[in-house]
Amino acid sequence: MVAAGARAAAVLGLMAALLAGLGAPGGPAWAGYDEGLTARSRGDFVTALREFTQAAEAGDARAQFSLGAMYRNGEGVPPDATAAANWYRRAAVQGHVEAQYNLGLLYRNGTGVAKDDAVAATWYTQAARQGHSQAQYNLAVMYQIGAGVQTDLAEAFAWLTLAALQGQVGAEAALGRLAVGLNPQQTQAAERKAEQYIEQYLKRPAAAPAPAAAPAAPAAPAR
Predict the structure, then answer these.
(1) Residue 201: burial class (beta carbons within 10 Å; 0-12, 13-18, 19+)
(2) 3-state secondary structure (DSSP) of residue 218
(3) Could you tell me if 149 and 143 are in contact, meaning their C-beta atoms sit under 8 angstroms apart?
């Protein structure tokens, strides 16, 4: 487990370096992505592949993720899980949450990449922190069974709580089963961590702007 933790830390360091090199996400829209999206929606995979590739090579994380999905699903190209993983990775290091989750899934299952639970947990963690409920659930399971991470029931409890609050199917039942097996001290620690993670990572709707204050009534004329 120590080796797995060290590997995960190394992966996080690599991700940080890649992010520094790529720059912050959320730049201008890249030409080609919208065209690719339209073409894919109407089943024109040849055009979608061409447009996504141009935008992806220019650095658009959305196009990189979409291109990865097309290679994974075999849309316009033969299915290629290795190519899918490569494009997911390029989007994931730019913070694309669905790419992070899907890359974690590939590493967990050994699809297109060598199976590596530590790396899977790393990518699930990135997506979970951005509010991805399925990544939160999958990460909780890994903490329960010690797959790629050290077994930590408080971590599992916290991530299951977030997933359940977002309506992830199965999370509430899994949370109940986990809670039954905790002793009072473990329960207290788990609940504290869940409260902390709710504050940090639970996605909340943006607050509505405060209503404008009513204009002050005009002052009475002096007598």
Answers:
(1) middle
(2) coil
(3) yes
**What domains, with CATH codes, occur in the chain?**
1-21+31-110 (1.25.40.10), 131-202 (no CATH)
What are the start-end ranges of the E strands in the chain? none
Distance CA 32, CA 130 (A): 26
**Residues 101-117: what's their mean pLDDT?**
98
Secondary structure letter of residue 95 according to DSSP: T
Per-residue pLDDT band for 204 (boundaries 50, 70, 90) equals low
The tokens describing 207, both together, are 């607050």
**Measured between alpha carbons, how far is 140 from 159 in angstroms, rounded to an integer?**
5
Q: In whole angstroms, what is the distance from residue 124 CA to residue 198 CA?
A: 17
Residue 151, number of CB atoms within 10 A of its CB: 13
Residue type at position 170:
G
Whether 128 has a pLDDT exceeding 90, the answer reads yes
Q: Which of 5, 57, 11 is nearest to 31 (CA)?
A: 57
The alpha carbon of residue 18 and the mean position of all alpha carbons in its chain are separated, in whole angstroms, by: 17
What type of residue sits at position 135? A
Higher pLDDT, 218 or 164: 164
pTM for this structure? 0.78
Q: Which amino acid is at 91?
A: A
